Amino acid sequence: MVLVFAESPRGNLKKAAFEAVTYGKKVADLLGTSCIALTLGSVKDAGELGRYGASRVLNVADAALSNFDSQVYAAALADIAKSNGASVVILSHTSTGKSVAGRLAVRLNAGLVSGVNGLPTASGGNLRVKKSVFSGKAVAEYEINSAVKVVSLMGNAVKPEAAGSPVPVENVSANTSAGRIRVKEVKTQEGRVPLPEAEIVVSAGRGMKDPTNWGIVEELAETLGATTACSRPVADSHWRPHHEHVGQTGIAIRPNLYIAIGISGAIQHLAGVNNSKVIVVINKDPEAPFFKAADYGVVGDLFEVIPRLNEAFKKFKAAN
Ligand SMILES: Cc1cc2nc3c(=O)[nH]c(=O)nc-3n(C[C@H](O)[C@H](O)[C@H](O)COP(=O)(O)OP(=O)(O)OC[C@H]3O[C@@H](n4cnc5c(N)ncnc54)[C@H](O)[C@@H]3O)c2cc1C
Fold it and tell me: Are residues 7 and 17 in contact, defined by beta-carbon separation less than 8 angstroms?
């Protein structure tokens, strides 16, 4: 059986949860077994996961799970995986998934590959999975040969696909014993879609010259319904908050559209964004390395280009 942990912060299923179940269904089909989704805490519309291929949806609605705690989550997941005889456990490669996957793998004595980005193949009882390595410069294939296998799936690696219909949610209990570290309080950032889940990202770099110039970036993001990001020196200089920093040492993202404004395109920046579906680069230097990775490029002064682009998008939206 393939068990998929479907994340639901504040009770709402994430897009990543539908992606993980879609992936889990495909892995289950490959192995000739079923895909079961697991939600933790109080979750709205968990049965919807049936639409994406979960034959059953299990929920552990224990108060101990209402605040995310990686130790408690790993204990609950391991318990459910063991009691249901899971051979593969799939998580999303989010901050939650990343902090649970290692602990879970230890509890299950399982091989773990984190951040996989393509469908696996099966060879004997083993599973072969692919992931990007060396800052996106190469693709590595790993074979997991342990009895139980754990993988975490990169965001946007698969598109959620309808493969069934909603199923009733089964309430089950699991070990939720507290770890040695207790979560006392969780403060969440409200507002735009979090960067790892954003479909459109408007990102800006040192070419902006000064933090007071960010208004035009914010406006463009507002028009496009995008999330804002930035290069590392911008975050290091406190021009923008650190949670916006993308790249090798920041967040790695795969949006459908990444607009890079006044960013040179250093290899460390590209490492976190070059899996974006479409990259648009705006830079006044025609030799900027980012143009090599771009699908579309505008050579020009961002202070002229961005307001005009924003007006054009607004007009387009108004007319459609
Ligand atoms: C170990 C290590 C890890 C790193 N990790 C990261 C990381 O995770 N993320 C990251 O981003 N960086 C990272 N860096 C830093 C990286 O090497 C670059 O220094 C950084 O990405 C450059 O940021 P930038 O493009 O904003 O600035 P710059 O390199 O200064 O580029 C600014 C760009 O703006 C353009 N520009 C200037 N004015 C205008 C204008 N008016 N209109 C249009 N364009 C204009 C310029 O032509 C230039 O291309 C790392 C470095 C190291 C050594």
Answer: yes
Sign (positive or negative) of CA dihedral 81, 148, 73, 130: negative
Q: Per-residue pLDDT averaged across 155-175, rounded?
A: 93
Distance 310 CA to ligand 1 centre (A): 23
What is the whole-number distance in angstroms between the Cα of residue 208 and the centre of ligand 1?
11
Report if pTM > 0.90. Answer: no
Instruction: List the structure tokens of 56.
Output: 């059953």
Using DSSP, state whether 41 is helix, strand or coil. Answer: coil
Q: Cα of 179 to ligand 1 centre, how many Å? A: 41
CA dist 262 to 59, 205, 286, 303, Å?
A: 46, 5, 12, 10
The ligand 1 atom nearest the CA atom of 272: 8
Per residue in 11-45, pLDDT (tens digit) is 999 999 999 999 999 999 999 999 999 999 999 99
- Ligand 1 is surrounded, with C-beta below 6 A, by 205-207, 231-234, 247-250, 262-264, 266, 268-269, 272, 283-285, 288, 301-303
- Among 42, 39, 33, 40, smallest CA distance to 11 is for 42
Asked whether residue 63 carries a pLDDT value surpassing 90, the answer given is no
Q: Where are the alpha helices (DSSP H) in the chain?
A: 15-31, 70-83, 95-108, 215-224, 232-236, 267-273, 290-293, 302-319
Q: Are 103 and 18 in contact (CB under 8 A)?
A: no
